[in-house]
Amino acid sequence: MPRKNSAFMAATAAVAFTTFFAVTAMQTAEAQRKSLRWATSNTGSYGYKVGAAMSTILEKALDGEYTVTVQPYPSTTGAMKSAMDGGAEIGYTADVGMRSLYDGQAGFKGYTPKKGRLVHTWYAYPMESFMAAPAKTASQYKCWGDFSGKPVFFTTAGFMNWLNFRRIYDALGYKFNHVEIDPSTQADALQSGSIAGSVAYTTAGRSLASYWRETEIRADIKLINPCPDEVKKLTEKGLKPVEVNPKNAFSKDVGVDMVLGVPIYFAYNVRADMPADVVYKMVKAFYDSREGLAKQDKGFTPMARDFVGMQAGGIGANPDIPVHPGLARFLKEQKAWNDSWKVAGK
User: Fold this and answer.
1) Residue 28 banded pLDDT, cuts 50, 70, 90
2) Do 126-263 and 29-124+265-333 fall under one CATH topology?
3) For the whole model, what pTM was predicted?
């Protein structure tokens, strides 16, 4: 009996010893993994949803060398600053936000990053901005220029679509006469005539903002497309309008078969000091996964349809901003590199 107990105790000790070292080895391996903190917009937003969906793909693409954690922020500016101040490695942004950063405007006035500014890295999905008017007065508006100087609600002041139409009007030389209202009162403002028009927008050509859902239920509206000469000018300025099927977003007839909107390219950018091979693997993995992602979420459809074109569009909106070497390598392989663009660090 003592021999059996001794054998049992020895076996138990061996198992415990093996388990201890196995757990210790796992903990050591986990501790050796580098951290990639992904700063996104607030929980529940589409920006957060995309970050969460891509984090698993990114960990796999980096062969388990990195642990990716998604960190939500209440604003795009907050996410950008976190990545530039060392609180995160990847920052949620958009082409209009990058413009404000490099111009030192809006939330970046007087701001100096502690680690470095973000550079072009990966553009994930578009948001398309366009113009709407009350159905009863829509015949007065043939082009976007007809709204020049007129009272318009360009979405909430300072928000991305507001910034987008600021640059659209600057490019076209129009007078930007913004009237600030509570978005929930938009239908009343359009019907009363206190505003001549209002900017509408879709995310990835499909979803409408909740307040626009209410507006189209309570008011009859028509969408107004830019005229050919306006499209030409915007295209020359790197703000090429894209087609959006209104039936994918609106529940009622809005007067056009296709609406032309100027896209905002939402991105997840990094600082120039992120290793080029890490960024290349990230972009390549997202490119390889594009079709499967689109099947899971229709919001990825634009990215799946023209992944490379979306990267070029994001860069083209701000061609003076440097491109991360990892993205530059990917675009060169895709024969989509423009020699006028600047590679970060060179």
Assistant:
1) very low
2) yes
3) 0.79
**Please, are residues 241 and 126 in contact by the beta-carbon 8 Å criterion?**
no
Do 67 and 59 touch, CB atoms closer than 8 A?
yes
| CATH C-level class of 126-263 | alpha beta
Give the domain ranges of the chain: 29-124+265-333, 126-263
pLDDT digits over 150-169, tens only? 999 999 888 889 989 999 99
Pick the CATH number of 29-124+265-333 from 3.40.50.2300, 3.40.920.10, 2.40.30.10, 3.40.190.10: 3.40.190.10
Mean pLDDT over the full length of the chain: 90
